[in-house]
Amino acid sequence: MVREIDYSVAPRRDILCIDVKSFFASVECVKRHLNPLTTYLVVMSHAERQGGLVLAASPMMKAEFGIKTGSRRYELPDDSRIIIAPPRMNLYLHVNEMILKIARRYVSKDDLYVFSIDEFFMDVTQYHALFGDTMSIAKRLQQDIWQELRLAVTIGIGENPFLGKSHWMWKQNIIGAA
User: Which residues form the UmuC domain (predicted)?
Assistant: First the structure.
């Protein structure tokens, strides 16, 4: 006998998956008073070597030159617009804490789940009375981070972390968007 499950009565959550675009590269741009969305910058270890490793690339480096995390120094084009920055982990950790401080304005620490230095999840289910619907909270968070830190974030929304991440990946065209 096959038993059908009525999912309409299952509890639903409103989860945001927040990812900072090209985090290390974006932080380096902001520290130089440059727009992280329009600047050609890579964060690279051992830039003096041809095998130096790109740890992060700005969105323009990715879009125009196809340079991404894991690219090598010898793959960089000879272009005077490109800035090569050494990694500064203490700075990135400090900025990460600033981002999380903004997020904690919207949810308690129990509803904030840090996944990595540039990605975290928020359960906003119980905060609608304070901040509006899920989309409104996502937009406000995105605006606050941009206005205060000049960092662009993308946000996926789902009923659980997996669906939130899947939505984010679909929006970024990482998984098939038909």
Answer: 15-165
DSSP state of 72: B
Q: Where are the beta strands (DSSP E) in 82-118?
A: 83-85, 112-116
Would you state the structure tokens that stand for residue 14, as one six-digit string? 């409103």
Sheet holding 119-123, edge to edge: 112-116, 119-123, 15-20, 153-158
Q: Is 145 exposed, middle or buried, given 0-12, 13-18 or 19+ CB atoms closer than 10 A?
A: buried
- Using one digit for the tens of pLDDT, what is the confidence trace for 157-177? 887 555 555 555 555 544 444
| Active-site annotation, residues | 119
The model's pLDDT over 105-130, given as tens digits with 9 standing for 90+, comes to 999 999 999 999 999 999 999 999 99
Report the distance separating Cα 30 and Cα 87, nearest Å: 14
- Same domain, yes or no: 133 and 68: no
Same domain, 74 and 143: no
> Which residues form the domain of 141?
9-21+89-171
- The encoded tokens of residue 163 equal 């669906």
For residue 104 the two structure tokens come to: 């904690």
- Both tokens of 143, joined, read 């605006």
Q: Return the closest-CA partner of residue 63 out of 86, 24, 37.
A: 37
